[in-house]
Write a structure and sequence with these properties.
By secondary structure, the protein is α+β, with helices and mostly antiparallel strands. It has three helices and five strands; from the N terminus they run H-E-E-H-E-H-E-E.
Length: 155
């Protein structure tokens, strides 16, 4: 089953890849690795999910924001690789959670993205990961996640 069929079964549609908000590119390719710049929870209507987890955003809400961020990362992957079917491994995720100093459930939040990648890519979606709490993120977004994926060698 292709990643696109899995997305459809989940009721999800790939958005357009988000435009960088500063002087960087959405991805950089080196050999068979694609390094995806950090993405945030950008909704289809162009609004961002904002707030501080542990204060005005719950773990459950932030999990959904991380899942949405994962969908935006998938859009960048699709644009970078040309076809999500070329992804042979999700190598690593690095997730940042805009949280209060006493919040400690960062891994539960970033699971939103990890679970989506597992649903879309099955076994190759398993990855190394870090989930870090930070005092702020650009635009007060709740989460920012970057990824490294491996693509198939050209035929």
């Amino acid at each position: 089953m292709t990643p696109y069929i899995r997305l459809a079964e989940l009721g999800l549609t790939l958005p357009e890849p988000p435009t960088p908000i500063a002087n960087f590119v959405t991805h950089a390719e080196s050999g068979r690795l694609i390094f995806l710049s950090g993405q945030g929870p950008l909704r289809a209507d162009g609004t961002l999910c904002t707030g501080k987890v542990g204060e005005d955003v719950t773990v459950e809400q932030a999990y959904e924001h991380a899942r949405l961020t994962g969908l935006n990362l998938l859009a960048v992957m699709h644009a970078a690789a040309g076809d999500l079917g070329r992804i042979v491994r999700v190598v690593k995720l690095l997730g940042f959670v805009n949280a209060t100093p006493t919040f400690s459930d960062h891994p539960k939040v970033v699971n939103g993205c990890s679970d989506l990648f597992a649903d879309v890519f099955d076994k190759i979606g398993g990855h190394a990961r870090s989930a870090i709490g930070v005092g702020s993120l650009p635009g007060n977004i709740t989460v920012e996640i970057e990824a490294v994926v491996e693509i198939a060698a050209p035929h």
